[in-house]
């Protein structure tokens, strides 16, 4: 840990203020790192290997802000992803964390790294304070609520967000959103922080302020690594270590202050009044006629001359904008003293995440808050069901009790199943891929485990869909004058709700396994395919090769149950207002529709077991996607 840091920590601990300091420093080294991706090539009509990283080496130290720079496509994000353990596909080489070596293809154990991705993974309907306090509740199980509150305010003040506590995240500026993303991860004081393009989309003032902040965090003993596309001179001044990539190879790796002498050692002179980072970028982009490999080797061999008296600049963590200079020897002594006291005072494991039950409770509360802020979505959904119920009720008014309009009622029943299947399925099929992005970030940064997350999502979505279905059924069933005998009406209602929840389970599976662009057509195509069985196509007319689809179709099972609940169970003759009604006896209709002998129990079992199966498959697919690196 950087000297001086412990001083600040001990002061905080003695004052019973939770220290905003990392517990262990992380020294990250990587050797001969390569990344090769196999991809389909249309030109070669086969697979082609793309070498993204070509044996890069480097070392990132605690207390330093390292910028990974390079032209677009140089491999910055790929390197960051591999170092963080976020994606390790095609990666080879050695990653050494505090002396412990591991293979780059394994994602485990990167010194408790936290990764802040380019897109802001924020819950936009929560306020800044709510986002922070809920994250603190998830991450800091051993803190009392008072300690958590203090910690939240401490981090918010450190990141200059104190004035925005009651602002809803969606109303924050780009820079504030980026700082909040950092604040959320700082709650657990990570020792190793990765940020992908943190300044992208920010103006120069916001970028400079964010980089100052990251530099301050690094001074607190953290290892902070950020990819930065092209830093301005002001931002470049705040960077400690520069790691320059050019076409997947290391062009320069070393301190910012040594950059100019190192370049000069390779006969590369930065023009006067030229931003050194711009010059470096121009070189790496091949804008000068320079042998980059030869220059990189010369710069690698360059050894800076050390000055006799070395001192370090260490801004105090709580006032990071006012650096103070400490003598190295003195600070070392203080550090040792402070470290002992720190260990003594802060011996409990402060960054233990909460247990599964508490996680479930917190996530449920978070979903409840987000839903109340965004209740219009729920209202629209219920309103849409009510409007359709009124339209169907008007179009098929009284068809349920009349023998001459049995076919009309049959179409109403089919239309009802189509409606609840599509609304149940599509609402989650389309929204879940968007949710996946945030889930990936939060799960990777160890906010919670998968079980509590899924439970909390279902606990909100299931009642929503049930309320929507019930409002549709009650209104339309009554308007169409279908039998109101309690057993029939209850079976019909339960069938419609269960089929809709089954479709929703399918929606979760499709949404969690396919990108939105594919999900938008796979969802309707599958619903359409399953819906022809039973209504448009009786089993006896189905070719043998496709009969299995008839048997596994939850839509067919739900539809058969719905028709049976209305016309089955020995329903007596219906009223006929015409001279002749072919279906005056409901059993005649069931026989002609090939539904006279359906097994109610096995159809209920099919709908329920498909629902459970799809949820199990969704959990498995999610677990695989979240843990596959
Ligand atoms: N999974 C992948 N499959 C195929 N190519 C990939 C994959 N990931 C990255 N690449 C390619 O590797 C190269 C480096 O990508 P990377 O995102 O790391 O670059 P970058 O330096 O971060 O670029 P930028 O600054 O534009 O974000 C690019 O050409 C990219 O298209």
UniProtKB/TrEMBL annotation:
<dbReference type="InterPro" id="IPR017871">
    <property type="entry name" value="ABC_transporter-like_CS"/>
</dbReference>
<protein>
    <recommendedName>
        <fullName>ABC transporter domain-containing protein</fullName>
    </recommendedName>
</protein>
<dbReference type="GO" id="GO:0140359">
    <property type="term" value="F:ABC-type transporter activity"/>
</dbReference>
<dbReference type="GO" id="GO:0005524">
    <property type="term" value="F:ATP binding"/>
</dbReference>
<dbReference type="GO" id="GO:0016887">
    <property type="term" value="F:ATP hydrolysis activity"/>
</dbReference>
<feature type="domain" description="ABC transporter">
    <location>
        <begin position="37"/>
        <end position="272"/>
    </location>
</feature>
<dbReference type="InterPro" id="IPR003439">
    <property type="entry name" value="ABC_transporter-like_ATP-bd"/>
</dbReference>
<feature type="transmembrane region" description="Helical">
    <location>
        <begin position="491"/>
        <end position="511"/>
    </location>
</feature>
<feature type="transmembrane region" description="Helical">
    <location>
        <begin position="411"/>
        <end position="432"/>
    </location>
</feature>
<dbReference type="InterPro" id="IPR013525">
    <property type="entry name" value="ABC2_TM"/>
</dbReference>
<dbReference type="InterPro" id="IPR027417">
    <property type="entry name" value="P-loop_NTPase"/>
</dbReference>
<dbReference type="InterPro" id="IPR050352">
    <property type="entry name" value="ABCG_transporters"/>
</dbReference>
<feature type="transmembrane region" description="Helical">
    <location>
        <begin position="604"/>
        <end position="624"/>
    </location>
</feature>
<dbReference type="GO" id="GO:0005886">
    <property type="term" value="C:plasma membrane"/>
</dbReference>
<dbReference type="Pfam" id="PF00005">
    <property type="entry name" value="ABC_tran"/>
</dbReference>
<keyword id="KW-1133">Transmembrane helix</keyword>
<keyword id="KW-0067">ATP-binding</keyword>
<keyword id="KW-0812">Transmembrane</keyword>
<feature type="transmembrane region" description="Helical">
    <location>
        <begin position="378"/>
        <end position="399"/>
    </location>
</feature>
<keyword id="KW-0547">Nucleotide-binding</keyword>
<dbReference type="InterPro" id="IPR003593">
    <property type="entry name" value="AAA+_ATPase"/>
</dbReference>
<keyword id="KW-0813">Transport</keyword>
<feature type="transmembrane region" description="Helical">
    <location>
        <begin position="518"/>
        <end position="540"/>
    </location>
</feature>
<feature type="transmembrane region" description="Helical">
    <location>
        <begin position="453"/>
        <end position="479"/>
    </location>
</feature>
<comment type="similarity">
    <text>Belongs to the ABC transporter superfamily. ABCG family. Eye pigment precursor importer (TC 3.A.1.204) subfamily.</text>
</comment>
<keyword id="KW-0472">Membrane</keyword>
<dbReference type="Pfam" id="PF01061">
    <property type="entry name" value="ABC2_membrane"/>
</dbReference>
């Amino acid at each position: 840990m950087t000297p001086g840091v412990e001083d600040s920590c001990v002061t905080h601990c003695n004052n019973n203020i939770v220290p905003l300091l990392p517990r262990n420093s992380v020294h990250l080294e990587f050797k001969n790192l390569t990344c090769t991706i196999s991809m389909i090539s249309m030109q070669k009509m086969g697979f082609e290997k793309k070498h993204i990283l070509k044996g890069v080496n480097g070392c990132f130290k605690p207390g330093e802000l390292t910028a990974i720079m390079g032209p677009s496509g140089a491999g910055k994000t790929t390197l960051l992803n591999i170092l963080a353990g976020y994606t390790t596909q095609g990666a080879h080489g050695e990653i050494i964390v505090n002396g412990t070596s591991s293979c780059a293809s394994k994602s485990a154990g990167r010194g408790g790294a936290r990764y802040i991705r380019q897109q802001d993974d924020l819950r936009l309907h929560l306020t800044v304070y709510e986002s922070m306090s809920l994250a603190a509740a998830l991450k800091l199980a051993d803190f009392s609520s008072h300690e958590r509150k203090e910690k939240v305010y401490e981090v918010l003040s450190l990141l200059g967000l104190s004035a925005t506590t009651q602002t809803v995240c969606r109303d924050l500026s780009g820079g504030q959103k980026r700082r909040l993303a950092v604040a959320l991860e700082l709650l657990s004081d990570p020792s190793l922080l990765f940020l992908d393009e943190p300044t992208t989309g920010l103006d120069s003032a916001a970028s400079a302020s964010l980089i100052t902040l990251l530099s301050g965090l690094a001074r607190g003993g953290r290892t902070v690594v950020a990819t930065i596309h092209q830093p301005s001179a002001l931002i470049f001044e705040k960077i400690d270590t520069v790691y320059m990539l050019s076409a997947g190879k290391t062009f320069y790796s070393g301190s910012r202050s040594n950059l100019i002498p190192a370049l000069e050692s390779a006969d590369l002179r930065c023009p006067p009044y030229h931003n050194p980072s711009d010059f470096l970028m121009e070189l790496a982009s091949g804008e000068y006629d320079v042998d980059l490999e030869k220059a990189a080797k010369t710069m690698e061999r360059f050894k800076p001359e050390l000055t006799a008296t070395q001192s370090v600049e260490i801004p105090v963590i709580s006032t990071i904008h006012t650096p103070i200079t400490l003598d190295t020897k003195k600070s070392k002594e203080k550090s040792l003293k402070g470290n002992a006291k720190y260990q003594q005072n802060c011996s409990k494991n402060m960054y233990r995440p909460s247990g599964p039950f508490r996680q479930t409770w917190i996530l449920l509360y978070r979903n409840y808050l987000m839903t109340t802020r965004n209740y219009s979505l729920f209202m629209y959904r219920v309103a849409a069901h009510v409007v359709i119920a009124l339209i169907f009720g008007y179009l098929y008014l009284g068809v349920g009790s009349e023998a001459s309009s049995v076919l009309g009622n049959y179409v109403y029943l089919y239309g009802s199943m189509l409606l609840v299947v599509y609304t149940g399925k599509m609402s989650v099929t389309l929204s879940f891929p968007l949710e996946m992005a945030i889930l990936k970030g939060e799960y990777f940064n160890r906010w919670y485990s998968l079980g509590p997350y899924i439970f909390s999502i279902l606990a909100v979505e299931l009642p929503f869909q049930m309320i929507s279905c019930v409002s549709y059924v009650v209104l339309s069933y009554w308007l169409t004058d279908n039998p109101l005998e309690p057993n029939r009406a209850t079976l019909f209602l339960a069938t419609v709700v269960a089929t809709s929840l089954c479709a929703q389970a399918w929606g979760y599976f499709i949404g969690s396994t396919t990108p939105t662009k594919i999900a938008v057509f796979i969802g309707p195509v599958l619903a359409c395919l399953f819906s022809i069985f039973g209504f448009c196509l009786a089993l006896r007319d189905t070719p043998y090769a496709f009969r299995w689809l008839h048997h596994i179709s939850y839509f067919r099972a739900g539809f058969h149950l719905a028709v049976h609940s209305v016309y089955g169970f020995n329903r007596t003759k219906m009223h006929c207002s015409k001279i002749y009604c072919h279906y005056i006896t409901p059993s005649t209709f069931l026989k002609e529709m090939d539904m006279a002998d359906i097994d109610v129990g096995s159809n209920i079992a099919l709908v329920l077991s498909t629902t459970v199966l799809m949820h199990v498959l969704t959990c498995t697919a999610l677990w695989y996607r979240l843990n596959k690196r």
